[in-house]
Q: What sequence folds into this?
């Protein structure tokens, strides 16, 4: 299988958007044999800690499975470690004393890439920000703290100038608005905003291409390819993941309705 790292993953720490816990997303990435997974919540790194704890637990399970492989064919039972989501008061699957361990492939566990999805108040372009070292991680967290201090509780106000001031050492992946739906003015603004950041951080910027699965992905990708060529940015495939399994789709649809104010 061709190695693949998912660099755009939204957990339930993004309000009314993500439909799965960080633990579930990391566990599923391990089951699929992904090389890496980036937890990139909207203007937040809140899900990263839980994802890191999940990977540590999966590593313990794997070590335990190897040690007991010659004694039994059954997978080890995860030790009691109840992780409760305080918003829903639900215990996360795979991390209770009653749940059997997930079946993992015989290859290394995915690398966890901490990050955030930066949503700006003055641009239609969103940016995945992935630190390359400890200093860059520090700048990212300070940037988010700055944005949260400017806004009401639960919100974060960031502008393009903040990226220019704080994003040195971060890999930046542009997520433009839907170029099929964008009008001439929006398309021009998108090109300008991407070019501005790309010029400030040469070699650090990429253009993300995510499928929408609406029957129009090919023309959409063609327009993104044109934008990438005009911006001189390499394209990167991202899944824009919102859930760890298809069974969470109904919940994701309900969250979308609540977010957009439609009647359920």
A:
């Amino acid at each position: 299988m061709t190695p693949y790292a998912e660099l755009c993953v939204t957990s339930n720490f993004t309000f009314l958007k993500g439909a799965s816990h960080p633990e579930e997303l990391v566990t599923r990435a391990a089951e699929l044999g992904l090389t890496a997974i980036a937890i990139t919540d909207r203007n937040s790194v809140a899900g990263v800690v839980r994802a890191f704890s999940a990977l540590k637990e999966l590593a313990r399970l794997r070590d335990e499975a190897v040690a007991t492989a010659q004694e039994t064919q059954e997978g080890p039972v995860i030790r009691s470690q109840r992780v409760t989501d305080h918003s829903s008061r639900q215990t996360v699957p795979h991390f209770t004393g009653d749940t059997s361990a997930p079946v993992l492939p015989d290859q290394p566990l995915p690398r966890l890439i901490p990050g955030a999805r930066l949503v700006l108040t003055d641009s239609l372009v969103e940016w995945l920000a992935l630190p390359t070292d400890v200093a860059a991680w520090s700048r990212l967290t300070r940037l988010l703290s700055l944005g949260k201090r400017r806004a009401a509780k639960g919100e974060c106000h960031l502008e393009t100038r903040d990226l220019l001031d704080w994003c040195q050492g971060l890999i930046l992946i542009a997520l433009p608005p839907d170029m099929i739906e964008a009008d001439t003015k929006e398309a021009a603004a998108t090109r300008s905003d991407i070019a501005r950041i790309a010029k400030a951080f040469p070699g650090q910027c990429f253009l993300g291409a995510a499928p929408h699965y609406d029957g129009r992905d090919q023309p959409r990708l063609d327009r993104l390819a044109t934008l990438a060529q005009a911006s001189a940015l390499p394209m990167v495939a991202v899944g824009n993941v919102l859930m760890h399994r298809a069974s969470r789709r109904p919940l994701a649809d309900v969250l979308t309705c609540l977010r957009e104010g439609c009647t359920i």
Observations:
- The first strand starts at residue 5 and ends at 9.
- Residues 167 and 190 are 19 Å apart (CA to CA).
